[in-house]
Design a protein that fits this description.
- The protein is an alpha/beta fold and about 400 residues long.
- The protein has one domain: TIM Barrel.
- The chain contains 16 helices and 9 strands.
- The chain has an 8-stranded parallel barrel, surrounded by 5 helices.
- Strand 8, helix 13 and strand 9 form a beta-alpha-beta unit.
- Helix 13 packs parallel to helix 15.
- Belongs to the glycosyl hydrolase 10 (cellulase F) family.
- Its EC number is 3.2.1.8.
- Keywords: Carbohydrate metabolism, Glycosidase, Hydrolase, Polysaccharide degradation, Signal, Xylan degradation.
- It catalyses: Endohydrolysis of (1->4)-beta-D-xylosidic linkages in xylans.
């Protein structure tokens, strides 16, 4: 009984103390979570420039959720693989237009622009090209014929082309590709001239990665495109792939964009994704902290691009649509979540970061810093192909 009485007294004392606290302390009110973008609002409605994705044709045909996102969110599409040399031109006398034509038809039905990727690259070449043995003149004809056949086929349907893709190594030297081996350094200029001859109305781009992490490579790329301009070679834009990573500073991202614009050419953020598993850990998970960090990066990138002169904003393209479709996972054999849509094509915080940048009237700190100073920064390591997605 004594024990029960003691327990009862303690309980009464605690109850009275709780009552006193309620009288003297306000109940904490949780900070509200900012509302997400309304479902009825889409990127293509908000963006003052074209916004798009690189599209997998098979997924476009077979996955309804994928199809719905591409139709509702984007007004520009790039073929992820269907317009590369090996896909379009599998043997010397054969062109396969099926998938590429499907994408063009889809774009026309959905009022979307088509960006062509890519005419000349050192990868995705069919065996008949890599084993081709003949004179320099015959090689020149091979390149010219491929470029002009493809550009002519899509004349009036494809607005622009990545004419040459990834011609530089990370050290700023021209890549010793099969095209350079067979045709010399100036194959790049001639590729642009051949494309222009086939369709003078098409916008022609040089496309590469590394602008945001390698000052040396960026300088080499800008030197090339400025030289082409000076020579009167028909080049209209520069593509920044922007396969980037969570640890690249916002000022580095902004510097890449603003220095590209200093060429006076149109700027395309052509293959944007932001990898978050920097150490390629097989056990990594996508935490709220990673989601918030990724949102900040997407917002910074879009703010920097939006600040460019309107005439130079060719557009922003993400490399595929949802995290389930990203090339990054296959490359690292690890989980990663680099895109604005998740496994089920639901909007992530990264999507809201894009929207916030599109709706913002302020200038980001990273962009202000980029404008104030140019600097040298190098990654600790790069992917095997030079892309700094996992640093």
């Amino acid at each position: 009984m004594k024990t029960n009485a003691l327990l009862g007294s303690l309980a009464l004392l605690l109850l009275l103390q709780c009552g006193d606290k309620e009288k003297t302390q306000a109940i904490p009110i949780p900070t509200p979570t900012p509302p997400k973008t309304p479902p009825s609002t889409t990127l293509r409605q908000l963006a003052p420039f074209p916004i798009g994705a690189a599209v997998n044709i098979n997924l476009l045909k077979t996955r309804p959720a994928y199809l719905n996102v591409v139709k509702t969110e984007y007004n520009s599409v790039t073929a992820e693989n269907a317009m590369k040399f090996g896909a379009l031109h599998p043997s010397e006398a054969v062109y396969n237009w099926t998938d590429a034509d499907y994408l063009v038809d889809f774009a026309q039905q959905n009022n979307a622009r088509v960006h062509g990727h890519t005419l000349i690259w050192y990868k995705s070449l069919p065996g008949w090209v890599t084993s081709y043995q003949d004179s320099t003149a015959t090689w020149e004809n091979l390149m010219k014929t491929h470029i002009q056949t493809v550009v002519t086929h899509f004349k009036g349907k494809v607005a622009a082309w990545d004419v040459v893709n990834e011609a530089f190594e990370d050290d700023g030297q021209l890549r010793n590709s099969i095209w350079r081996q067979k045709l010399g350094d100036d194959y790049i200029a001639r590729a642009f001239e051949y494309a222009h001859q086939a369709n003078p109305a098409a916008l022609l781009f040089y496309n590469d990665y590394g602008h945001e992490y390698s000052t040396t490579k960026r300088t080499a790329i800008l030197s090339l495109v400025n030289s082409l301009k000076t020579r009167g070679v028909p080049i209209h834009g520069i593509g920044l792939q922007m396969h980037t990573s969570s640890n690249i500073s916002n000022s580095n991202l902004a510097t890449a964009i603003t220095t590209a614009a200093q060429t006076g050419l149109k700027v395309h953020l052509a293959e944007l994704d932001i990898a978050m598993n920097r150490d390629a850990l097989t056990t990594a998970t996508f935490t709220p902290a990673l989601a918030a960090a990724q949102k900040d990066k997407y917002r910074a990138v879009v703010q920097a691009f939006k600040a460019l002169p309107a005439a130079q904003r060719y557009g922003i393209t993400t490399w595929n649509v949802g995290d389930a479709d990203t090339w990054v996972r296959g490359y690292c054999s690890c989980p990663d979540w680099p895109l604005p849509f998740d496994e089920n094509y639901q909007r992530k915080p990264a999507y809201d970061g894009i929207v916030e940048a599109l709706q913002s009237t302020s200038t980001s700190a990273g962009l202000r810093e980029a404008r104030a100073s140019m600097f040298t920064w190098r990654p600790r390591a790069t992917l095997g192909n030079g892309k700094a997605a996992f640093q």
